[in-house]
């Protein structure tokens, strides 16, 4: 029986994201196309005499821990009785719309299953109560996501090469959902996407107009990315703040990154691709 394991926790990109309406439980009904890229946090789990949770890496919390730590919440929620040493190397920017916390949570759950500490629970609603993105990270494949994140349909998206860039600002998911206007919700609830009609050219991100209105930096980055050679489309992912451009060829993404670093030298950027993850 294993007593330790190391797993990669991938970042996600919302190729599109629409907010339909607010639910009675306080969440929102959404429709989103999600793909996963080869940008990973590293989650190490080891049985120990005392439970400890540590973060390291470029995007670790400045204090060394989170006030509302999703890892602590997962352990409590699943009533884990085994003491564990959990260390997470943070390579994914936080508050960026890339699913940093949710991917750590889902990867922890997978690790606990592999270590035979918990049994596998095939119930998206069960885990979505902890975080709307956790079920899709557990699923780990290109998906069309509905409900509050618990209704997941397998949906293949084309191969893309992405240039990601993280502005200096961080964006709170909770605050962004509070800002979704009633006009957007009313319009979208009458225009529900049928999965069979998803294309790479359709459907933007309902949070993008809010992000642009409040942050000139995001507007400037999206304009730069959109004008890059070979760019198919440029958007924010999730509630932001990370911006991305999708390309058919990696050389275009690399060339755009070189220009990006010249124009925005202080910003984090990354060239990655989807359809590389095999769970």
Task: Give me some keywords for this one.
Ribosomal Protein S5, domain 2, alpha+beta, 9 helices, Alpha-Beta Plaits, 29% helix, 279 residues, 2 domains, six-stranded mixed sheet, four-stranded antiparallel sheet
Kindly estimate the percentage of residues that lie in beta strands according to DSSP.
25-35%
Look up the CATH topology of the largest domain.
Answer: Ribosomal Protein S5, domain 2
State the low-pLDDT regions, or none.
Answer: none
Q: How do the SSEs run, as a string of H and E? A: EEEHEHHHEEEHHHHEEHE
Number of helices: 9
CATH architecture of the largest domain: 2-Layer Sandwich
Proportion of helical residues: 25-40%
Judged by helices, strands and strand pairing, the structural class is alpha+beta
What summary fits the major beta sheet? 6 strands, mixed
- Domain count: the total is 2
Using the CA coordinates, give the radius of gyration. 19 Å
- What is the highest CATH level, the class of the largest domain? Alpha Beta
Using the alpha-carbon principal axes, give the shape: globular
Distance between the termini: 21 Å
The average pLDDT score comes to 90
How many beta-strand segments?
A: 10
How does the SSE layout of this entry go?
Blueprint: E1 4-22, E2 28-47, E3 52-56, H1 70-77, E4 84-89, H2 100-114, H3 124-128, H4 134-139, E5 143-147, E6 151-154, E7 161-166, H5 173-179, H6 182-189, H7 208-214, H8 216-226, E8 231-236, E9 243-247, H9 250-263, E10 268-273
Parallel strand pairs: 3-4
Antiparallel strand pairs: 1-2, 2-4, 2-5, 5-6, 7-9, 7-10, 8-9
Helix pairs in contact: 7-8
